[in-house]
Amino acid sequence: METSYSLTNIDETEKFCNDNGIEFSCVRHPPVPTVETMIEEVKFPDKEVVLAKNLFLKDKKKKTLYLLVAKHDTVVDFKALAKFLKTGSSNIRGGDSDKLEEILKVKGGSINLFCILNDNEKKVQLLVDKSLYGQEWLGIHPMQNDATFAISGADMEKVITLSNHEPQVINFSELVVLSDTPKYKQQKKEKKPKKEKKAKDEDLHELGITISREDDFSLWYSQVITKSEMIEYYDVSGCYILRPWSYGIWERVQRFLDGLFKQSGVENSYFPIFVTEKALTKEEDHLEGFAPEVAWVTKSGKTDMKEPIAIRPTSETIMYPAFAKWVQSHRDLPILLNQWTNIVRWEFKHPTPFIRTREFLWQEGHTAHATKDEATKFVYEILECYAKTYEEMYSVPVIRGIKSRGETFAGADFTSTVELFVPSNGRGIQGATSHYLGQNFSKMFDLWFENEDKKKDFAHQTSWGFTTRSIGAMIMIHGDNKGLVLPPKVAQVQVVIVPITNKDNHDEILESADKVFATLKGSGIRVKIDDRKNYKPGWKFNHWEVKGVPIRLEIGKKDIENSEVRVVRRFDGKKFQLSTEGISQSLLDELDKIQAGMYDKAVKERDDRMKNAATWDDFMSELNQRNLILTPWCDQESCEDNVKERSKEESKQAENAGEEVLTGSAKTLCKPISQPELAEGTKCFACDSNATSTALWGRSY
Amino acid sequence: METSYSLTNIDETEKFCNDNGIEFSCVRHPPVPTVETMIEEVKFPDKEVVLAKNLFLKDKKKKTLYLLVAKHDTVVDFKALAKFLKTGSSNIRGGDSDKLEEILKVKGGSINLFCILNDNEKKVQLLVDKSLYGQEWLGIHPMQNDATFAISGADMEKVITLSNHEPQVINFSELVVLSDTPKYKQQKKEKKPKKEKKAKDEDLHELGITISREDDFSLWYSQVITKSEMIEYYDVSGCYILRPWSYGIWERVQRFLDGLFKQSGVENSYFPIFVTEKALTKEEDHLEGFAPEVAWVTKSGKTDMKEPIAIRPTSETIMYPAFAKWVQSHRDLPILLNQWTNIVRWEFKHPTPFIRTREFLWQEGHTAHATKDEATKFVYEILECYAKTYEEMYSVPVIRGIKSRGETFAGADFTSTVELFVPSNGRGIQGATSHYLGQNFSKMFDLWFENEDKKKDFAHQTSWGFTTRSIGAMIMIHGDNKGLVLPPKVAQVQVVIVPITNKDNHDEILESADKVFATLKGSGIRVKIDDRKNYKPGWKFNHWEVKGVPIRLEIGKKDIENSEVRVVRRFDGKKFQLSTEGISQSLLDELDKIQAGMYDKAVKERDDRMKNAATWDDFMSELNQRNLILTPWCDQESCEDNVKERSKEESKQAENAGEEVLTGSAKTLCKPISQPELAEGTKCFACDSNATSTALWGRSY
């Protein structure tokens, strides 16, 4: 006879675990009804725990119920899931809460894997994400969402076995792809190739983005980066494949920024990826900032190394011992070096492609100067390079500022920054930073020189970095509900030509289109012609819209008769006719207009959302409306800590009260360099002290 | 009372170790009287052992005797050492062999650290390389050079303590730098800056290369790469810093090669540096080739990872699972991807900057095609890109060929290659390879597609790589006894202007020089003016010669009067006057001539040393004269193995007989693509079989 269970709270869950030899560690936390809050609140001090997203679903037609347990960042595409479950494409829905409470004995915000133990009559089918198997630690709520148990992947399987449910194991990364190319992939699964077929209208829909930014920003983002072929997911957590569509952007940005650096006298070099423990641990503040995220190599082949070697999380401690060797006199200064490399930071926060990844690409510049003046001047010279890159290449406006003490780079005297704003989710995002390190590192690494007065002096240093995160920021800021929107200067393809043919005029139209293609290519426009026969124009429109190509040219029978082409602009959807006479110049002008238009649009969207607040209540009200807020501020670290704590608390209360607000704590993005005048005696918006400057606040990535 | 020792052979050394609790492992090998032979012969199967170079020295004046023990690849600069020991700069000499045998009880080819135990009367001072301390395993001969004991760094210290000698510990990397800039560095050591002084004539000599290629090729190479500021040594073994002088070359080569790839339709991308054990171990041959060299990450922060993650030694196993996702139909092919990345191969052979390093930079291209024909065509298309890069950028001629079975890339059907020749040491060097992988990986990684006949077929693949090794090859091939010689197309600085001034005409001459500088810069020449006041022209000539700048322009009083400049070409030393009228075009032409002249010179030097041999005796005779040899060959793997073995053995016998020959085994560099006709019935030069092709043989890096 099968055992029947009834688990309704943490105590009963604990007993169940103890009775069945399931080891667990427990953390308590505020209630986390959503995946977002869970990610933010649930942290185990000593282990990397994979959190789960839990959904109670039903098949509208067949009335089947499902408990779906998947990795927290899984993109669950209901249409694809419906296909997998072999039901109609729009039949999968959220399950009813009364059934949930009746059968699984849990409320909406607390669904978890243990629930399935309560389904003693097997009314619910269990769907489990393949990627949860074999995990070291899984986080599962013990029937209530103010606590999380970490159990092993093996014990997860044990729970399932004890529940007497036969789970359906789903590879969600396949499911996502499935929605793009259902026929082929199914063939692949069955290992029996069948006849290829032309794309039908139903595929059209699946090709595009099926979620709006407003409904689920992170799902929208996932769809955009995968369906546009920027990113391929990879089987090491936090690592992603940059496909040519995104890497091409990086190449163009690299070339632009590298040119600016070279104008400033910076030279490129390459320093090793490995650093000894001894060098890495030399500057204490710096170490403290990076130590928990360092990846260590301890074995080569089958041999243990005597001393572990770290992979660079940044290269101050790798470069400065060499600087010290090279410098004797002030004549050996400045040293202005840069490198374009990969970097590894083994973070435990949940990863987001481009934005937070365990390996990423960047440039890191490191300089040494004879004087503080020269060094700080250089800090801002580089900051301008970063601002220029965002503004001119990405069409993204920036706010230049100085980081608060609490947000300053580990080991720096001050950090300057360019800050960006994502209108659709109201979050700030740090664009790039340029640090003045003072003499902190030069003293540790013995980087001194004989100055003009023949006295010994330590070098003044700067370091600065710009990463592939910038691509993610650009996607979030410009992307829309049809997909990617690319600024012409970075786009891999600036103009795509779609010939509108039918079988009577196919060759004739293609000939004209080829001519236009050759003309544009000859004038340096990055142009592509989509002359694939097995796709219809509508499918192609959709395809290139998802991929964000700035201009689509349609060439049909009538266009040719009139010596015209039809132009469709991606970023604002504007459509118009252009004469083929002088088409290259017209389109070059058009691309410039788009580049500028996208920038202006982003400025307007940001400025509309940048509010002033002089009091706490105004501050919270603007924050909950997903705005950035400028406030008079006392510039004290303890005050910022309080604001973080209090804003988090109050927004949670607002959410619990049913308001639609963004949760999480607000922090300073920066103290803008361009400061408005503060009336004498102005108080800090958050505490009793006098305000000393104006700070920009928001929720931030 | 102090113990006195007398160790003369392996048995007595073993007893000493056992008596004193010193743990050791022992390997036996042929006698290795030189560092070169030691590196080649002494291998521990299970550990990474640092080998030592041991020198018995004396101070000519003071009669002091020294035993110097340093890491095998240490550059021991006697002048710098003399300075360190506070004796006259040319007073350090090799010690006399009778003293060596009398006091240390060992013969010349067997000197080792244990010897010092025999010096019971403390007649010899002990000098120890700082970098030997803290090593996991050190290899030391047990008083005879046909065996090596591996003992720990801690036990090395124990041996020294037991010997009752107070060692002087030397940081040799500092010593090398010291010889460049003695005054400043000494100040640095004493931490008391003294007055800076102008470089004197004696510094002049130390600035330059002090060893000839013919006398000690590897010491010459070390001096060239450090004194030219291409390389800075680093404290992780096998990793080196690429300074702007070398990285700039890489940038230019990258841009050139990347342009060629793009013309062939290749797109750039970026795949993660990490690979799971599961993916890495999928293709067995491939794994077998790389497994012993893989670096494993097992910890992040203080947390052990559940599964170790490998750092890419190459990316076949990282990329092809993604390829498999992307390909369904023949219409999705070809995939032509490339990435520019770092690579880690934890080799235990002794490292050489650029040539064999544990981390290096490269591009790796990976493609998938529908047919074998298309794939193999692409293999050669890429090989031509590599040949072009060597020929046109590096002015280095190549021999295109196919690798023998034994030298083929692990997992490939065949490997095509471009092979280079270093005239001054008679070694071949592999330039770059392009592989046809067949369907070996596509079958393992499920990379199949539906072909035009609607049948399932596996993709045909290629992979190909070009590395920073190419810079090392260029240095070895073009460098001369004055230092680096750079081809204009890759040189960071193409023309250096040295104004020849005295205090009367300083400003006037500088003004003219600046004008020439501005003119050249304006026409795109990479030009530098060396107007430093604290160095004399002679010093500057030397400085820029060591750095290999293709053209030096001298501008003095007389030149200005005649509206001329003096031109000195680095590669052949040719000197002549040029009119300042049309100077840019004259110099651009001159740079082209130098680029071509360097290529022609290298072709001639190689062709003079490429010999034919039809018999074994002829083959060995040419090999021992450091030539490359073309032979009729049977193309059998077992035959090549025999040749390797036999050539090694015979050259060692020749060396033992007192002949000056290069030792080590010969192998095939390639079977050249352009094959001479073989007369029917021609026999293999090395065995009884019939020859099937002509192979190129040599000793190789």
Automatic annotation (TrEMBL), chains A, B:
Extract the PROSITE patterns matched here.
AA_TRNA_LIGASE_II
Short name of any one Pfam family annotated for the protein: ProRS-C_1
Q: Among the entry's GO cellular component annotations, what is one?
A: cytoplasm
GO terms of molecular function: aminoacyl-tRNA deacylase activity; ATP binding; proline-tRNA ligase activity
User: Which SMART domains does the UniProt entry name for this protein?
Assistant: ProRS-C_1
Matching entries from SUPFAM superfamilies are given as: C-terminal domain of ProRS (SSF64586), Class II aaRS ABD-related (SSF52954), Class II aaRS and biotin synthetases (SSF55681), YbaK/ProRS associated domain (SSF55826)
Q: Which GO terms describe its biological process?
A: prolyl-tRNA aminoacylation
Its EC number is 6.1.1.15
Enzyme class, UniProt record, top EC level = ligase
Is Endoplasmic reticulum among the key words of this record? Answer: no
Domain spans labelled Aminoacyl-transfer RNA synthetases class-II family profile: 249-487
**Which reaction is recorded as catalysed by this protein?**
tRNA(Pro) + L-proline + ATP = L-prolyl-tRNA(Pro) + AMP + diphosphate
Keyword list (alphabetical) reads: Aminoacyl-tRNA synthetase, ATP-binding, Ligase, Nucleotide-binding, Protein biosynthesis
Question: What NCBIfam families is this protein classified in?
Answer: proS_fam_I
Supply the name of the protein.
proline--tRNA ligase
Q: What is the organism field in this record?
A: Euplotes crassus
**Phylogenetic lineage:** Eukaryota, Sar, Alveolata, Ciliophora, Intramacronucleata
